[in-house]
Please model this.
Amino acid sequence: MKVGIIQQSCTSDVQANMEKLARNIADVASRGAELIVLQELHNSLYFCQVESVDNCGLAEPIPGPSTQFYGEIARKHGIVLVTSLYERRAPGLYHNTAVVFEKDGTIAGKYRKMHIPDDPAYYEKFYFTPGDIGFQPIDTSVGRLGVQVCWDQWYPEGARLMALAGAEILIYPTAIGYESSDTPEEQERQRGAWQTVQRGHAVANGLPVVTVNRVGHEPDPSGQTNGIQFWGTSFVAGPQGELLYEGNKDKEENVVVEVDMKRCEQVRRWWPFLRDRRIECFGGLTKRFLD
Model:
């Protein structure tokens, strides 16, 4: 399967961001991409650097204007498209939601981000209600997609549950970058850990992983920090964690990566981790901590 990755910088002009994405989608589709993945909250700047109720005005219903826009793009190019939207479920109730479109432009399914961070410059708990539809893969014409969003990528439980539910590929739209006060060495340790844990999901579950991150610098509107330098490095890993592609740290990229989906079963025959799981001993995983 040919997977298209769009690693893009964003501005405060939502319409311009969407039109830019439309051009980039057309580019990778013209090069044969069957599945195209966008980064987290791609319509706007990453607004979670500050806590402001005014930013809730960016949220919209699903279906709504953005799903109509991206659904038409998917239909036009005959692609499966993974997007990331700020969902207005009800007044004052919002989610960080990935929406997947089928080749005919219809909504194949959605995933609401389960793990919501609350860290300096990442004040997502102010904006997003945790997801309530679980870790359910989304069936499409190119396979069963195990879609999660950004902070979810640090948790092996979500990846495992997607795999156990029959996901054939793990996908993570992402917005993560450097905190300016950290040393260069610490910044690289964080970036390396971010990629390593996700490659571990590929190994542990015998599945490819596709992660698409933002790139570029976005200032902090409050001026309390120096903003976020998103570290790009979008990547595709195979079912043994091998890097099939690794993107640039500071440049926009439109890339098409070929993934051998049939290889996953052979890898699972060599490394039958699902067979050997001692599920009767895992009850502690449902507790916050084992005191």
